[in-house]
Design brief:
single chain, 606 residues, alpha/beta, Spore Coat Polysaccharide Biosynthesis Protein SpsA, Chain A, 3 domains, 9-stranded mixed β-sheet, elongated
């Protein structure tokens, strides 16, 4: 790794340095990162990354004793639902079809059926193989007279299905041995389950497993950004009938369209945090490159646009940030009723910081309906008095004094009582607005009745990430995701640059409706005067059923630590652990297979 290799730009890059970066940033850089370096570097880095994931794979490999234990569990299941696996087939190579079918035959859970539908394949081996498979008592086959596409073929498959649940398997992919066991286990634990999905990874033609996708529990905003649910998908057959299966005209995005419609019909959506599906990376597959299937981008936008119409959401769909690197979409919602936003900025001296903050709001805010409330907490410098006096003469700015000792929670609660707006934006004085539409980008979510708080993308002066959503349990209590990632990066499966849900966001830039703030009890002035008050507030909102939303379309610089210390009070840490202990141990928007010791989505050490 000491050698140097020329990248695309011709510059020499230390492979040792690259290796350190890759180890730090984990799986997110596999595809988009190594393409920036030469062939030798790619081989070395790919091998290193596979080795890191391989240790996880080896640790989770099912031994004979594991299989025996699971079979014993199956005998204790009160429900033994039949799961129908639907597999549309078209001109797939013999070896891949054989592996796909074998992965079903090898299932630990035995109450299944396999519905194979040939979509008028031109390759002669397909009919021979399917004719052979149909002899199996659990296999049903159907041969179409004409090629109608994957949606029609899949629908023909589930029309054959007799199971209470349907699972979807592509003709060149594979299920893990325990895939149906885990689905049945979940159904026994949650009999109301309508939609079930799992984690997944990819396999190359040499059967190397790589790029694991460890997903969160159901995240409705992330699903509107891209089809993160994807594989392994299992749904109640009755629900599939209610939505009338897959729709033609959505080629390449037919599964995205289906998942959007399924999740509109039920709230009983469950996630299995285990890799149960292996998505084969072969040429012509979207697992290799989202540009491989030309129509599916337009069809994804169509599927999302129709979802907005069905849900009564006013807005439109456009391509997401860095779309050429990672396929994602933005649902841009209309501001239904323009409301006053009260921007609350606590300060104590540090006038250059405050000036920069206020000036950036004035220069880079295209949403006109806002007021600024500057809370002066015991400033002492003469220039502060002069500047604050100047601010009071400006339109829609008020300065209110807070004479007591510093208490972040108390200062902001006090300021809210002076706010005229229906929406409150808490903003640190050491921030600087980057994006013109930042305020409207936050308001479009703050206005949603199901949303509690909305957070922004905050960036250090060196153009690395300071905040892009807060993960509960990270570092003991909570920490920011993607900290120190380059601003140009997409993050873990696009997370940096898509609208998605988290358990909390930072009050360094947080918007919410005033009535929701009051309903949740405001910031805790007694137990959390300095730290974790924003996390505590977000968890209070989540307990009341509200979503927390992160949007990258509101971006600001954050000159953190320049105005206040980052010191964590041990009493506040202890209070959070005592109050939220169980929730800190299981963030639904994070994955238990990922490390709680770092902010860069590394796989948990095994």
């Amino acid at each position: 790794m000491e050698a140097c290799q020329k990248g695309k730009a011709g510059a020499k890059v230390s492979l040792k340095y690259i290796g350190v970066v890759f180890k730090r940033m984990g799986p997110v850089l596999w595809k988009e990162g190594i393409s920036a370096f030469g062939h030798k570097a790619q081989k070395i880095l790919f091998r290193r990354f596979k080795t890191e994931y391989q240790s996880w794979v080896d640790h989770h490999h099912l031994l004979k004793t594991d299989i025996a234990e699971r079979k014993q569990q199956i005998r204790s299941f009160s429900q033994q639902p039949k799961i129908s696996i639907i597999m549309p087939v078209y001109d797939v190579k013999k070896k891949w079809l054989k592996r796909a079918v074998r992965s079903v035959f090898n299932q630990i859970y035995e109450n299944w059926e396999l519905c194979l539908v040939d979509d008028a394949s031109t390759q002669k081996h397909i009919k021979r193989m399917l004719s052979k498979y149909r002899r199996h008592p659990k296999v049903k086959t159907l041969f179409s007279n004409q090629n109608q596409g994957i949606a029609a073929a899949t629908n023909k498959g589930w029309a054959l299905a007799e199971g209470e649940y349907v699972g979807f398997l592509d003709h060149d992919d594979e299920l893990s041995k325990d895939a149906l066991f885990e689905a049945a286990k979940l159904i026994n634990r949650y009999p109301d389950a309508d939609v079930i999905y799992s984690d997944e990874d990819k396999t190359d033609p040499k059967q190397h497993r790589f790029q694991p996708f460890f997903k969160p529990d159901y995240s409705p905003d992330w699903l509107l950004s891209f089809n993160y649910i994807c594989h392994f998908l299992v749904c109640r057959t009755q629900l599939l009938r209610e939505v009338d299966g897959l729709r033609q005209g959505f080629e390449g995005s037919q599964d995205y369209d289906l998942i959007l419609r399924l999740t509109e019909r039920t709230q009983h959506i469950y996630h299995i945090p285990k890799v149960l599906y292996h998505w084969r990376q072969v040429r012509g597959s979207t697992s290799m490159d989202h540009k491989e299937k030309k129509d599916h981008i337009a069809n994804s936008i169509k599927a999302l646009s129709q979802a907005l119409t069905r849900r009564g959401i006013e807005g439109f769909v456009e391509k997401g940030i860095h779309f050429d690197q990672f396929e994602s979409y933005r649902v841009k919602r209309n501001i239904k009723h323009p409301s006053l936003v009260s921007i609350i900025i606590p300060t104590k001296d540090k006038i250059p910081l405050l000036k920069r903050c206020v000036q950036s709001i004035r220069e880079k805010t295209d949403y006109p309906h806002y007021e600024v409330i500057v809370v002066d907490n015991q400033s002492q410098e003469p220039e502060t008095e002069s500047y604050l006096s100047e601010l009071t003469t400006e339109k829609d700015i008020q300065v209110i004094p807070f004479h007591k000792e510093y208490n972040f929670s108390k200062i902001n609660n006090f300021a809210v009582s002076h706010a005229k707006g229906d929406h409150i934006l808490f903003l640190n004085n050491d921030t600087q607005v980057i994006s013109q539409g930042w305020l409207s980008a936050m308001l479009e979510h703050s206005q949603r009745q199901e949303v509690g708080a909305v957070g922004a993308k905050l960036v250090y002066p060196d153009d690395t990430i300071q905040h892009a959503g807060t993960i509960i349990g990270l570092g003991g209590v909570a920490a920011h995701s993607h900290k120190k990632f380059p601003l140009s990066h997409n993050g873990y499966f696009g997370s940096l640059n898509v609208i998605r849900n988290y358990s909390a966001v930072t009050a360094a830039c947080m918007m919410l409706r005033k009535k929701v703030f009051e309903e949740a009890g405001g910031f805790d002035e007694v137990n959390l005067p300095v730290g974790f008050n924003d996390v505590d507030l977000c968890l209070e909102m989540r307990n009341r059923g509200y979503l927390i939303v992160y949007t990258p379309y509101a971006a600001l610089y954050h000159y953190e630590t320049q105005s206040r210390s980052q010191y964590l009070n041990p009493d506040e840490v202890e209070f959070m652990k005592k109050k939220w202990g169980e929730q800190l141990a299981a963030d639904p928007y994070y994955n238990p297979n990922l490390s709680t010791d770092s902010e860069d989505f590394q796989i948990k050490k095994v």
